[in-house]
Known about the structure:
With about 375 residues, the protein is α/β, with parallel strands linked by helices. About 25% of the residues lie in helices and about 30% in strands. The protein contains 10 helices and 18 strands.
Amino acid sequence: MASNKAGFSVRGLREWLESPVADGATAGRTRLNTLRGAAARITTPLLPDDYLHLVNPLWSARELRGRIVEVRKETADSATLVIKPGWGFDFKFEPGQYIGIGLLVDGRWHWRSYSLTCPPDWSHPEHRGKRLISIAVKAMPEGFLSSHMVSGVQAGTVVRLAAPQGGFVLPEPPPSKVLFLTAGSGITPVMAMLRTMDRRGVVPDVTHLHSARTADDVMFAADLRELHDKHPSFTADLHFTGEHGKFALADLDERVPDWRERETWACGPAAMLDEIEKHWAAAGIADKVHVERFEIERSASGEGGTVTFAKAGRVVEVDGATTLLQAGEGVGVQMPFGCRMGICQTCVVTVTDGHVRDLRNGTEHRAGDKVQTCISAAAGDCTLDV
Ligand SMILES: Cc1cc2nc3c(=O)[nH]c(=O)nc-3n(C[C@H](O)[C@H](O)[C@H](O)COP(=O)(O)OP(=O)(O)OC[C@H]3O[C@@H](n4cnc5c(N)ncnc54)[C@H](O)[C@@H]3O)c2cc1C
Ligand code: FES
Protein backbone atom coordinates (compact mmCIF):
# COMPACT_ATOMS: atom_id res chain seq x y z
CA MET A 1 0.00 0.00 0.00
CA ALA A 2 1.36 3.45 -0.89
CA SER A 3 2.19 5.50 2.15
CA ASN A 4 0.18 8.71 2.45
CA LYS A 5 3.40 10.34 3.68
CA ALA A 6 5.43 9.07 0.71
CA GLY A 7 3.67 11.35 -1.76
CA PHE A 8 3.23 10.07 -5.29
CA SER A 9 6.27 7.88 -5.83
CA VAL A 10 5.80 5.68 -8.89
CA ARG A 11 6.20 2.52 -6.82
CA GLY A 12 3.80 3.77 -4.14
CA LEU A 13 1.18 4.74 -6.72
CA ARG A 14 1.56 1.41 -8.43
CA GLU A 15 1.11 -0.53 -5.17
CA TRP A 16 -1.91 1.56 -4.23
CA LEU A 17 -3.50 0.92 -7.61
CA GLU A 18 -2.80 -2.79 -7.37
CA SER A 19 -4.31 -3.19 -3.91
CA PRO A 20 -7.94 -4.40 -3.56
CA VAL A 21 -10.68 -1.80 -3.95
CA ALA A 22 -12.66 -3.39 -1.13
CA ASP A 23 -9.85 -3.61 1.46
CA GLY A 24 -11.34 -1.82 4.44
CA ALA A 25 -8.67 -1.99 7.13
CA THR A 26 -9.04 1.70 8.02
CA ALA A 27 -11.75 4.26 7.40
CA GLY A 28 -9.33 6.54 5.52
CA ARG A 29 -8.16 3.77 3.30
CA THR A 30 -11.74 2.65 2.67
CA ARG A 31 -12.63 6.16 1.47
CA LEU A 32 -9.59 6.26 -0.81
CA ASN A 33 -10.29 2.84 -2.22
CA THR A 34 -13.94 3.66 -2.77
CA LEU A 35 -12.82 6.82 -4.58
CA ARG A 36 -10.36 4.89 -6.66
CA GLY A 37 -12.95 2.24 -7.55
CA ALA A 38 -15.52 4.92 -8.40
CA ALA A 39 -12.98 6.90 -10.44
CA ALA A 40 -11.97 3.83 -12.36
CA ARG A 41 -15.60 3.05 -13.13
CA ILE A 42 -16.75 6.60 -13.87
CA THR A 43 -13.83 7.31 -16.20
CA THR A 44 -14.55 4.18 -18.21
CA PRO A 45 -14.66 4.29 -21.21
CA LEU A 46 -12.69 7.59 -21.17
CA LEU A 47 -9.97 5.72 -19.24
CA PRO A 48 -10.57 2.27 -20.67
CA ASP A 49 -9.05 -0.94 -19.40
CA ASP A 50 -6.95 -1.18 -22.52
CA TYR A 51 -5.22 2.04 -21.56
CA LEU A 52 -4.63 0.90 -17.97
CA HIS A 53 -3.45 -2.41 -19.33
CA LEU A 54 -0.67 -0.65 -21.25
CA VAL A 55 0.64 0.81 -17.99
CA ASN A 56 0.31 -2.44 -16.03
CA PRO A 57 -1.49 -5.62 -17.18
CA LEU A 58 -2.85 -6.14 -13.63
CA TRP A 59 -4.71 -2.81 -13.63
CA SER A 60 -8.28 -3.42 -14.56
CA ALA A 61 -11.39 -1.90 -13.01
CA ARG A 62 -13.63 -4.35 -14.87
CA GLU A 63 -12.18 -7.75 -14.09
CA LEU A 64 -9.95 -9.51 -11.59
CA ARG A 65 -6.51 -10.23 -12.92
CA GLY A 66 -3.34 -11.76 -11.58
CA ARG A 67 0.22 -12.51 -12.59
CA ILE A 68 1.83 -15.90 -12.06
CA VAL A 69 5.00 -15.16 -10.11
CA GLU A 70 6.23 -18.70 -9.56
CA VAL A 71 5.61 -22.19 -10.95
CA ARG A 72 6.99 -24.84 -8.60
CA LYS A 73 6.86 -28.59 -9.28
CA GLU A 74 5.17 -30.58 -6.50
CA THR A 75 5.47 -34.03 -8.12
CA ALA A 76 6.24 -35.26 -11.65
CA ASP A 77 2.72 -34.37 -12.79
CA SER A 78 1.68 -31.52 -10.50
CA ALA A 79 2.78 -27.97 -9.75
CA THR A 80 2.03 -25.11 -7.40
CA LEU A 81 1.29 -21.77 -9.09
CA VAL A 82 1.89 -18.69 -6.97
CA ILE A 83 -0.15 -15.74 -8.23
CA LYS A 84 -0.06 -12.06 -7.39
CA PRO A 85 -3.63 -10.80 -7.78
CA GLY A 86 -4.28 -7.26 -8.99
CA TRP A 87 -7.08 -4.82 -8.14
CA GLY A 88 -10.12 -5.95 -6.25
CA PHE A 89 -9.10 -9.44 -5.12
CA ASP A 90 -10.50 -10.39 -1.70
CA PHE A 91 -7.66 -11.92 0.31
CA LYS A 92 -10.00 -12.65 3.23
CA PHE A 93 -11.35 -15.87 1.74
CA GLU A 94 -12.10 -18.92 3.88
CA PRO A 95 -9.61 -21.82 3.87
CA GLY A 96 -10.98 -24.53 1.57
CA GLN A 97 -12.50 -22.16 -1.01
CA TYR A 98 -11.62 -22.19 -4.70
CA ILE A 99 -11.03 -19.57 -7.36
CA GLY A 100 -11.71 -19.45 -11.09
CA ILE A 101 -8.65 -18.93 -13.27
CA GLY A 102 -8.66 -18.00 -16.94
CA LEU A 103 -5.67 -18.54 -19.22
CA LEU A 104 -5.24 -17.31 -22.75
CA VAL A 105 -4.29 -20.26 -24.95
CA ASP A 106 -4.26 -19.99 -28.76
CA GLY A 107 -6.16 -16.70 -28.63
CA ARG A 108 -9.00 -17.96 -26.40
CA TRP A 109 -9.61 -17.62 -22.65
CA HIS A 110 -10.06 -21.00 -20.97
CA TRP A 111 -11.47 -21.10 -17.44
CA ARG A 112 -11.16 -23.75 -14.72
CA SER A 113 -11.66 -23.89 -10.93
CA TYR A 114 -8.81 -24.54 -8.47
CA SER A 115 -8.80 -24.71 -4.68
CA LEU A 116 -6.62 -22.16 -2.96
CA THR A 117 -3.76 -23.89 -1.12
CA CYS A 118 -2.58 -20.87 0.88
CA PRO A 119 -4.05 -19.35 4.04
CA PRO A 120 -6.01 -16.06 3.75
CA ASP A 121 -3.91 -12.87 3.65
CA TRP A 122 -0.80 -14.80 2.69
CA SER A 123 2.51 -13.24 1.73
CA HIS A 124 6.00 -14.62 1.22
CA PRO A 125 9.39 -12.98 1.88
CA GLU A 126 10.70 -14.28 -1.48
CA HIS A 127 8.13 -12.04 -3.14
CA ARG A 128 8.89 -8.90 -1.11
CA GLY A 129 6.07 -9.50 1.35
CA LYS A 130 3.35 -8.85 -1.30
CA ARG A 131 0.00 -10.49 -0.76
CA LEU A 132 -0.22 -13.61 -2.88
CA ILE A 133 -2.36 -16.65 -3.48
CA SER A 134 -1.43 -20.17 -4.53
CA ILE A 135 -3.13 -23.07 -6.24
CA ALA A 136 -1.79 -26.53 -7.07
CA VAL A 137 -2.67 -28.30 -10.30
CA LYS A 138 -2.38 -31.98 -11.15
CA ALA A 139 -2.08 -32.65 -14.89
CA MET A 140 -4.97 -34.82 -16.07
CA PRO A 141 -3.96 -37.34 -18.74
CA GLU A 142 -6.42 -36.07 -21.34
CA GLY A 143 -7.03 -32.70 -19.78
CA PHE A 144 -6.49 -29.55 -21.81
CA LEU A 145 -5.61 -26.81 -19.35
CA SER A 146 -4.13 -28.74 -16.42
CA SER A 147 -1.24 -30.14 -18.50
CA HIS A 148 -0.50 -26.66 -19.80
CA MET A 149 -0.52 -25.25 -16.26
CA VAL A 150 1.83 -27.93 -14.96
CA SER A 151 4.30 -28.03 -17.84
CA GLY A 152 3.74 -25.07 -20.13
CA VAL A 153 2.80 -21.91 -18.29
CA GLN A 154 5.62 -19.50 -17.37
CA ALA A 155 6.12 -17.12 -14.45
CA GLY A 156 5.08 -13.66 -15.66
CA THR A 157 1.90 -14.88 -17.40
CA VAL A 158 -1.11 -12.66 -16.76
CA VAL A 159 -4.28 -14.58 -15.90
CA ARG A 160 -7.91 -13.69 -15.24
CA LEU A 161 -9.37 -14.59 -11.86
CA ALA A 162 -12.83 -15.23 -10.45
CA ALA A 163 -13.37 -14.41 -6.76
CA PRO A 164 -12.91 -17.10 -4.08
CA GLN A 165 -16.07 -19.02 -3.28
CA GLY A 166 -17.39 -22.37 -2.06
CA GLY A 167 -18.84 -23.90 1.08
CA PHE A 168 -16.15 -26.56 1.68
CA VAL A 169 -14.52 -24.52 4.41
CA LEU A 170 -12.97 -24.90 7.82
CA PRO A 171 -14.99 -23.11 10.52
CA GLU A 172 -13.27 -20.71 12.88
CA PRO A 173 -12.59 -21.97 15.53
CA PRO A 174 -12.10 -25.47 14.09
CA PRO A 175 -13.86 -28.45 15.72
CA SER A 176 -11.93 -30.21 18.47
CA LYS A 177 -11.63 -33.46 16.46
CA VAL A 178 -11.07 -33.41 12.72
CA LEU A 179 -10.57 -36.06 10.02
CA PHE A 180 -9.32 -35.16 6.54
CA LEU A 181 -9.76 -37.88 3.91
CA THR A 182 -8.08 -36.98 0.63
CA ALA A 183 -6.64 -38.61 -2.47
CA GLY A 184 -4.48 -37.26 -5.29
CA SER A 185 -5.10 -33.58 -6.01
CA GLY A 186 -7.97 -33.67 -3.49
CA ILE A 187 -5.39 -32.66 -0.90
CA THR A 188 -5.37 -29.04 -2.15
CA PRO A 189 -8.26 -27.45 -0.18
CA VAL A 190 -7.16 -29.36 2.94
CA MET A 191 -3.66 -27.91 2.54
CA ALA A 192 -5.15 -24.41 2.87
CA MET A 193 -6.98 -25.55 6.03
CA LEU A 194 -3.83 -27.10 7.54
CA ARG A 195 -1.70 -24.07 6.70
CA THR A 196 -4.32 -21.76 8.20
CA MET A 197 -4.48 -23.74 11.45
CA ASP A 198 -0.67 -23.85 11.57
CA ARG A 199 -0.38 -20.09 11.05
CA ARG A 200 -3.00 -19.34 13.70
CA GLY A 201 -1.22 -21.74 16.06
CA VAL A 202 -4.49 -23.59 16.72
CA VAL A 203 -4.16 -27.20 15.58
CA PRO A 204 -6.76 -29.38 17.31
CA ASP A 205 -6.78 -33.19 17.19
CA VAL A 206 -6.43 -33.68 13.40
CA THR A 207 -5.90 -36.93 11.51
CA HIS A 208 -5.21 -36.62 7.80
CA LEU A 209 -5.49 -39.84 5.81
CA HIS A 210 -4.17 -39.20 2.30
CA SER A 211 -3.95 -41.66 -0.59
CA ALA A 212 -1.50 -41.46 -3.48
CA ARG A 213 -0.14 -44.05 -5.87
CA THR A 214 3.43 -43.93 -4.52
CA ALA A 215 5.46 -41.80 -2.09
CA ASP A 216 6.74 -39.79 -5.07
CA ASP A 217 3.15 -38.92 -6.03
CA VAL A 218 2.30 -37.22 -2.71
CA MET A 219 1.72 -33.51 -3.29
CA PHE A 220 2.99 -31.32 -0.40
CA ALA A 221 4.87 -34.31 1.12
CA ALA A 222 7.50 -32.07 2.76
CA ASP A 223 4.81 -29.74 4.21
CA LEU A 224 2.89 -32.70 5.65
CA ARG A 225 6.04 -34.06 7.27
CA GLU A 226 6.89 -30.65 8.72
CA LEU A 227 3.38 -30.17 10.15
CA HIS A 228 3.39 -33.72 11.50
CA ASP A 229 6.72 -33.09 13.28
CA LYS A 230 5.72 -29.63 14.52
CA HIS A 231 2.25 -30.37 15.95
CA PRO A 232 1.82 -33.42 18.23
CA SER A 233 -1.96 -33.13 17.72
CA PHE A 234 -1.62 -33.60 13.93
CA THR A 235 -1.19 -37.03 12.35
CA ALA A 236 -0.46 -37.40 8.64
CA ASP A 237 -1.21 -40.99 7.62
CA LEU A 238 -0.23 -41.83 4.03
CA HIS A 239 -1.71 -44.72 2.08
CA PHE A 240 0.05 -45.89 -1.11
CA THR A 241 -2.43 -47.41 -3.52
CA GLY A 242 0.33 -48.73 -5.82
CA GLU A 243 1.44 -51.02 -2.99
CA HIS A 244 -1.73 -51.66 -0.96
CA GLY A 245 -4.59 -51.01 -3.39
CA LYS A 246 -7.42 -48.54 -2.84
CA PHE A 247 -8.01 -47.52 0.78
CA ALA A 248 -10.96 -49.53 2.09
CA LEU A 249 -13.33 -47.57 4.30
CA ALA A 250 -13.91 -50.76 6.29
CA ASP A 251 -10.34 -50.26 7.57
CA LEU A 252 -11.27 -46.94 9.16
CA ASP A 253 -12.28 -48.63 12.42
CA GLU A 254 -8.73 -49.89 12.82
CA ARG A 255 -6.88 -46.87 11.39
CA VAL A 256 -8.93 -44.07 12.96
CA PRO A 257 -11.04 -45.82 15.64
CA ASP A 258 -12.86 -42.61 16.65
CA TRP A 259 -13.75 -41.55 13.06
CA ARG A 260 -17.45 -41.31 13.93
CA GLU A 261 -16.70 -38.57 16.47
CA ARG A 262 -14.67 -36.49 14.02
CA GLU A 263 -15.94 -33.69 11.79
CA THR A 264 -14.74 -34.91 8.40
CA TRP A 265 -13.69 -33.15 5.19
CA ALA A 266 -13.20 -35.35 2.12
CA CYS A 267 -11.92 -34.53 -1.36
CA GLY A 268 -10.76 -36.89 -4.12
CA PRO A 269 -12.07 -38.93 -7.04
CA ALA A 270 -15.86 -39.10 -7.48
CA ALA A 271 -16.06 -42.84 -6.71
CA MET A 272 -14.22 -42.37 -3.41
CA LEU A 273 -16.53 -39.52 -2.41
CA ASP A 274 -19.65 -41.53 -3.34
CA GLU A 275 -18.43 -44.35 -1.06
CA ILE A 276 -17.62 -41.96 1.77
CA GLU A 277 -21.09 -40.36 1.61
CA LYS A 278 -22.71 -43.82 1.73
CA HIS A 279 -20.45 -44.97 4.59
CA TRP A 280 -21.23 -41.92 6.71
CA ALA A 281 -24.95 -42.15 5.90
CA ALA A 282 -24.95 -45.84 6.91
CA ALA A 283 -23.37 -44.85 10.23
CA GLY A 284 -26.18 -42.29 10.72
CA ILE A 285 -23.76 -39.35 10.70
CA ALA A 286 -24.18 -37.96 7.16
CA ASP A 287 -24.15 -34.43 8.61
CA LYS A 288 -20.59 -34.91 9.93
CA VAL A 289 -18.98 -35.25 6.50
CA HIS A 290 -18.24 -32.38 4.08
CA VAL A 291 -17.39 -33.29 0.52
CA GLU A 292 -15.74 -31.32 -2.31
CA ARG A 293 -16.03 -32.65 -5.87
CA PHE A 294 -13.60 -31.65 -8.63
CA GLU A 295 -15.41 -33.47 -11.44
CA ILE A 296 -18.86 -34.29 -12.70
CA GLU A 297 -20.17 -37.48 -14.23
CA ARG A 298 -21.19 -36.77 -17.82
CA SER A 299 -23.31 -39.71 -18.76
CA ALA A 300 -25.62 -38.08 -21.34
CA SER A 301 -24.86 -37.21 -24.94
CA GLY A 302 -26.83 -36.38 -28.08
CA GLU A 303 -27.16 -34.00 -31.02
CA GLY A 304 -26.14 -30.38 -30.56
CA GLY A 305 -27.60 -27.39 -32.42
CA THR A 306 -27.47 -23.63 -32.92
CA VAL A 307 -27.33 -21.62 -29.70
CA THR A 308 -28.53 -18.01 -29.75
CA PHE A 309 -27.39 -15.72 -26.91
CA ALA A 310 -30.27 -13.27 -27.15
CA LYS A 311 -29.04 -10.30 -25.12
CA ALA A 312 -25.46 -10.52 -26.44
CA GLY A 313 -26.68 -10.96 -30.00
CA ARG A 314 -24.33 -13.89 -30.69
CA VAL A 315 -25.06 -17.20 -32.40
CA VAL A 316 -22.95 -20.36 -32.53
CA GLU A 317 -23.26 -23.91 -33.82
CA VAL A 318 -22.13 -26.55 -31.26
CA ASP A 319 -22.03 -30.31 -30.80
CA GLY A 320 -23.96 -32.12 -28.06
CA ALA A 321 -20.93 -32.35 -25.70
CA THR A 322 -19.97 -28.66 -25.60
CA THR A 323 -21.50 -26.93 -22.60
CA LEU A 324 -23.57 -23.78 -23.12
CA LEU A 325 -21.04 -22.00 -20.91
CA GLN A 326 -18.14 -22.97 -23.19
CA ALA A 327 -20.23 -22.15 -26.25
CA GLY A 328 -20.96 -18.64 -24.99
CA GLU A 329 -17.39 -17.97 -23.91
CA GLY A 330 -16.19 -19.20 -27.29
CA VAL A 331 -18.06 -16.37 -29.04
CA GLY A 332 -17.20 -13.72 -26.47
CA VAL A 333 -20.43 -13.67 -24.42
CA GLN A 334 -19.94 -12.58 -20.77
CA MET A 335 -21.34 -15.76 -19.21
CA PRO A 336 -21.83 -15.87 -15.43
CA PHE A 337 -20.02 -18.77 -13.79
CA GLY A 338 -18.53 -20.07 -10.54
CA CYS A 339 -17.44 -23.69 -10.04
CA ARG A 340 -18.03 -24.81 -13.67
CA MET A 341 -19.02 -28.21 -12.23
CA GLY A 342 -22.74 -28.01 -11.49
CA ILE A 343 -22.27 -27.15 -7.82
CA CYS A 344 -22.75 -23.43 -7.18
CA GLN A 345 -25.70 -22.32 -9.40
CA THR A 346 -23.90 -19.09 -10.41
CA CYS A 347 -24.22 -19.95 -14.10
CA VAL A 348 -28.01 -20.33 -14.17
CA VAL A 349 -29.79 -18.66 -17.13
CA THR A 350 -33.27 -19.00 -18.63
CA VAL A 351 -33.97 -20.91 -21.84
CA THR A 352 -36.29 -18.75 -23.95
CA ASP A 353 -36.65 -21.08 -26.93
CA GLY A 354 -35.82 -24.66 -27.90
CA HIS A 355 -34.36 -27.44 -25.75
CA VAL A 356 -31.31 -27.94 -23.58
CA ARG A 357 -29.88 -31.22 -22.21
CA ASP A 358 -28.41 -31.78 -18.73
CA LEU A 359 -25.14 -33.64 -19.44
CA ARG A 360 -25.23 -35.47 -16.10
CA ASN A 361 -28.44 -37.38 -16.65
CA GLY A 362 -29.94 -36.43 -20.03
CA THR A 363 -32.89 -34.47 -18.57
CA GLU A 364 -34.23 -32.10 -21.24
CA HIS A 365 -35.23 -28.54 -20.36
CA ARG A 366 -37.51 -26.35 -22.43
CA ALA A 367 -38.44 -22.66 -22.86
CA GLY A 368 -39.08 -21.04 -19.47
CA ASP A 369 -36.76 -23.40 -17.56
CA LYS A 370 -33.68 -22.12 -15.78
CA VAL A 371 -30.56 -24.19 -16.54
CA GLN A 372 -27.00 -24.46 -15.26
CA THR A 373 -25.02 -23.65 -18.40
CA CYS A 374 -21.85 -25.34 -17.10
CA ILE A 375 -23.41 -28.80 -17.22
CA SER A 376 -25.96 -28.30 -20.03
CA ALA A 377 -25.63 -28.56 -23.80
CA ALA A 378 -27.87 -27.69 -26.73
CA ALA A 379 -30.44 -30.37 -27.61
CA GLY A 380 -31.23 -28.93 -31.04
CA ASP A 381 -31.51 -25.20 -31.67
CA CYS A 382 -32.06 -23.08 -28.56
CA THR A 383 -32.06 -19.49 -27.31
CA LEU A 384 -30.76 -18.30 -23.95
CA ASP A 385 -31.64 -15.12 -22.08
CA VAL A 386 -28.07 -13.89 -21.77
C1 LIG B 1 -14.34 -26.61 -6.93
C2 LIG B 1 -13.22 -27.23 -7.73
C3 LIG B 1 -11.92 -27.17 -7.26
C4 LIG B 1 -10.89 -27.77 -7.97
N1 LIG B 1 -9.62 -27.74 -7.47
C5 LIG B 1 -8.61 -28.36 -8.12
C6 LIG B 1 -7.28 -28.36 -7.59
O1 LIG B 1 -7.02 -27.78 -6.55
N2 LIG B 1 -6.31 -29.02 -8.29
C7 LIG B 1 -6.58 -29.67 -9.46
O2 LIG B 1 -5.64 -30.24 -10.06
N3 LIG B 1 -7.82 -29.69 -10.00
C8 LIG B 1 -8.84 -29.03 -9.36
N4 LIG B 1 -10.10 -29.02 -9.91
C9 LIG B 1 -10.31 -29.61 -11.25
C10 LIG B 1 -9.98 -28.57 -12.32
O3 LIG B 1 -10.95 -27.53 -12.29
C11 LIG B 1 -10.00 -29.13 -13.74
O4 LIG B 1 -11.23 -29.74 -13.98
C12 LIG B 1 -8.88 -30.14 -13.97
O5 LIG B 1 -7.63 -29.52 -13.74
C13 LIG B 1 -8.93 -30.67 -15.40
O6 LIG B 1 -8.83 -29.59 -16.29
P1 LIG B 1 -8.32 -29.85 -17.79
O7 LIG B 1 -8.52 -28.60 -18.55
O8 LIG B 1 -6.97 -30.41 -17.80
O9 LIG B 1 -9.29 -30.98 -18.26
P2 LIG B 1 -10.49 -30.88 -19.30
O10 LIG B 1 -9.93 -30.69 -20.65
O11 LIG B 1 -11.48 -29.92 -18.81
O12 LIG B 1 -11.01 -32.35 -19.12
C14 LIG B 1 -11.26 -32.90 -17.81
C15 LIG B 1 -11.56 -34.39 -17.93
O13 LIG B 1 -12.83 -34.52 -18.43
C16 LIG B 1 -12.76 -35.20 -19.64
N5 LIG B 1 -13.64 -34.45 -20.54
C17 LIG B 1 -13.42 -33.22 -21.05
N6 LIG B 1 -14.43 -32.85 -21.83
C18 LIG B 1 -15.30 -33.89 -21.83
C19 LIG B 1 -16.55 -34.12 -22.45
N7 LIG B 1 -17.11 -33.22 -23.27
N8 LIG B 1 -17.20 -35.28 -22.20
C20 LIG B 1 -16.65 -36.20 -21.40
N9 LIG B 1 -15.46 -36.04 -20.78
C21 LIG B 1 -14.81 -34.89 -20.99
C22 LIG B 1 -11.31 -35.20 -20.12
O14 LIG B 1 -10.98 -36.36 -20.83
C23 LIG B 1 -10.58 -35.12 -18.83
O15 LIG B 1 -10.32 -36.40 -18.32
C24 LIG B 1 -11.15 -28.43 -9.21
C25 LIG B 1 -12.47 -28.45 -9.70
C26 LIG B 1 -13.47 -27.87 -8.97
C27 LIG B 1 -14.88 -27.93 -9.49
S1 FES C 1 -20.81 -22.57 -12.56
FE1 FES C 1 -21.30 -23.49 -10.65
S2 FES C 1 -23.15 -24.57 -11.15
FE2 FES C 1 -22.46 -23.83 -13.03
